[in-house]
Amino acid sequence: MLQQKVTDLDSLYVNFSFIKNNQPVNDGPKCGMTIKKAGSMRFCWNEKNPWREKVLKEISEDKIPLPIELIHSQIVYDLNSLKNTEGIKGDGIISQNKEFMPVLTVADCLPVYLYDNKKKVFGLVHSGWKGTGIIGKAIELAQKDYDSDPEDISIIIGPHIHDCCYIVNQERASYFVQNFTPSCVKELEEGGKCFAGGRGLAIEWDNGQEKLFRLSLLKANLQVLENYKIPRDNILVIDECTCCNEKFGSNRRETALATKKMGRKLNLEEAAHNFTVQAAFIRW
């Protein structure tokens, strides 16, 4: 497994490349994700976002953007034609069609990219806490539909919120311990803080009478990949916390800033429009 920092944050998006046996895959699809200054890539089938369409047209070049409306699930689609793609809802897409550019949205949750070096199957999933394990469903689908061998699959785990900033309660911590690995949670230290935006915003957590925990979605997903026998030397981790690094959009950081500014708790509609949704994509 390789861990890598993002160095090019001057454009509207960043690119990543797969590895196999710790070596770059030079003939595979390219992966990427827009950053905060690109603006909101929010997507719902019943909404219009002309700016998103313009940005994706630039990114896609001659490929066909293939969007999906997220529902925080473990639903993955295998799509190779445009038939019945309008209105699809779920959290992952795989394909063999090199004319397509699967796209999904993220803002602290993990974008996880997949590529079978032999069968040329490619795709990506959105892995939030509710959907953790979805990358396993994508691997299962690739095995069922294309007879993919885990030894041939390369994975990229993109920028996401890390355990330095992701604080959860006992119930959620216990869920991850029981379903993934105990190593993905650790009890929050006394007076623990999340220094969102580096040290620009210190979100304080009152331990009170309820135990709180730091949760590593990365470790949980690595355990899933280990369970599916994906070689560690085929996994690239983009080692950026979207909550810490203000060049990325972040649900937790931006919502906390908006709450602080308004001096009250945001309702669901306000919260949904007060952070920068990013587009994760994969294309040839």
Can you offer a commentary on this structure?
With 284 residues, this protein is α/β, with parallel strands linked by helices. It is 22% helix and 30% strand. The protein has 6 helices and 21 strands. The strands form 6 sheets. The chain has a 7-stranded mixed β-sheet with strand order 1-20-14-12-13-10-8, covered by helices on one side. It is globular, with a radius of gyration of 18 Å. The model has no long low-confidence stretch (mean pLDDT 92).
Strands, helices and their partners?
Blueprint: E1 2-4, E2 13-17, E3 19-20, E4 23-24, E5 30-34, H1 50-60, E6 64-67, E7 69-70, E8 76-78, E9 89-90, E10 92-95, E11 100-106, E12 110-116, E13 122-127, H2 134-146, E14 153-157, E15 167-169, H3 170-179, E16 185-187, E17 193-196, E18 201-204, E19 212-215, H4 217-227, E20 235-238, H5 251-262, H6 268-272, E21 278-283
Parallel strand pairs: 1-20, 6-11, 7-9, 8-10, 14-20
Antiparallel strand pairs: 2-5, 3-4, 5-21, 10-13, 11-21, 12-13, 12-14, 15-19, 16-19, 17-18
Provide mean pLDDT, rounded.
92
Given as residue ranges, the uncertain stretches (5+ residues, pLDDT < 50) are none
So what's the overall shape? globular
Distance between the termini: 23 Å
What topology, given as strand order, has the largest sheet? 1-20-14-12-13-10-8
Note the beta-strand portion.
25-35%
Number of helices: 6
What is the string of SSEs from the N terminus onward?
EEEEEHEEEEEEEEHEEHEEEEHEHHE
Alpha-beta content class: alpha/beta
Largest sheet: 7 strands, mixed
The total of beta strands comes to: 21
Work out the helicity level.
Answer: 10-25%
Please compute the radius of gyration using only Cα atoms. Answer: 18 Å
